[in-house]
Amino acid sequence: MAHAFLLTGIRGVGKTTTARIIAKALNCIADGNKKEPTFEICNNCSPCKSINNGNFLDVIEVDAASRTGVDGIREIIDSVMYSPNNARYKVYIIDEVHMLSNAAFNALLKTLEEPPQNVKFIFATTEIKKIPATIISRCQKFDLQRVDIETLTTHLNRICKAEKILFENDSIYQICKASEGSVRDALSLLDQAASLCQDNIKDEIVLNMLGLNGYEKNLELFELCILNKCDEALKVYDDIVQNGVQPVQIISNLLEISHLASRINVIKFDTNMTESLHKSISEISSHGLPKLVKFWQILIKSVEELRYAPNEQQAGSMAIIKLCFGSQMPDPSEFLEKLSNQTKDNLNNNNIDNVKRSNIEDNLNEVKSFENHENNEIKNFNVPKTFDEMLNLLLVNKEALLHAQLINNVHLISYSEGSIKIRLKDNTELEILKKLSSTLENITKTKWVISQSEEKGEKTIVEKQNSELDKNKEQIKSNPHFAEVFKHFPQAEITSIEEKDSN
């Protein structure tokens, strides 16, 4: 069994509750079991009842958001050395663990590496990316997923029936959708709605509470925009704003409609929608996926513009205008089709059809053949015939560093166009082979094979140059005129030899 657990997920998905359940499973003594943890929690034994009441001494809950420093962690580290008071395991539940400082994580790391046998850690976080990898690697990680709308709806329906709260189905759906998979948010919204409606939850009141008043108006607005009825669309937009809905919320609602309609266009039926909403969205989806995707792009850009606009209502109006006129713009496939048809018409008007297609194709083939021949000639022209030409080609293409490495560290064994066999000096990196191959391929547009061998090969270029220089020096020293100079200046040395132009 792991000594540390890491629970991740969005807010209100049940991380802390799950941590308490694990703590109960570790310490439950149902049926007289006092040695091993259990999967069947009784909720009746002394440890289970105490954990439920929050007064169990061996289950310690720590809020890392309020104890971010290393001092709080040191207190935990000091206390883990003591055995549990009356439980099987001492359990530390650290909520919002990502809020701990780096020093606190470092202090905790040693304990996680070598924990006491009777101590368990349970970490909960909404931001796993802020936790060091060294901590994550020492925990058994569980990702708690968002709760789907169907499950949330069933759960809220059960609560309403148990509490004798009357409700309309669409209102529960809107609450679940607004919660975004968070059970806690869904319960909070349900409690708020029940208070506002006096235990008789109405769709209209819930929509007002969520800022979604007149969702049918949003559907109507979307339909008017997609039909390019700009004047009517602006009137509906003004009415929605007049009812207290923020422009950014209107655009967000239109974004959601575009998303839902696109999904239905692809998957045909979405179980996360009510029947009435599904029917309305299906009608919108009939306008086609290209237009819906275009609307999404315009709307997502408009949301960003609303954030920086000096007047949100005006920016929202401009977004509606863009949608209306954008709806009449052809999608890429339609545009290409129109362009193709126009091209064909132009060709017909110019009597091009009188020319045989075979002749045109023959001419095109001749042009392509000429181009290929020309390219091959250029390609072959760039391929150096000798090793020295290859070195000069590197200098011309400003590969001075590679050129220096080759003349100093490479013993040539064989050379042909596209293939070089060499021996590298000791301590020369093999990376030079890859570098030379890729560089030559880029310059010559030809595949090169560079291979290494243990054969002796020729001297390096620098060794050849030095050998030639030494030979010339000896010849100069044997000259009677220079011999006389060295006689009078025995410490003199020949450092370089230059040929002067006879002119």
Could you walk me through the main structural features you see in this protein, from its secondary elements to its overall organization?
The protein has 4 domains: 4-143, P-loop containing nucleotide triphosphate hydrolases (Rossmann fold); 149-209, Helicase, Ruva Protein, domain 3; 215-326, Up-down Bundle (Zinc Finger, Delta Prime, domain 3), CATH 1.20.272; 382-458, GMP Synthetase, Chain A, domain 3 (2-Layer Sandwich), CATH 3.30.300. Helix 1 packs antiparallel against helix 2 (46-53) and helix 14 runs antiparallel to helix 15 (312-326). The model is unreliable at 351-356 and 373-381 (pLDDT under 50). It has helices at residues 15-27, 46-53, 70-79, 102-113, 133-136, 149-162, 169-179, 183-197, 203-209, 215-226, 230-242, 247-267, 275-285, 289-308, 312-326, 332-349, 357-382, 387-396, 400-409, 431-444, 461-478, 480-488; strands spanning 4-8, 59-63, 90-95, 119-125, 140-143, 166-167, 200-201, 410-416, 419-424, 449-452. It is flat and about 125 Å long. The protein has 22 helices and 10 strands. The protein is α/β, with parallel strands linked by helices. Helix 20 links the parallel strand 9 (419-424) and strand 10.
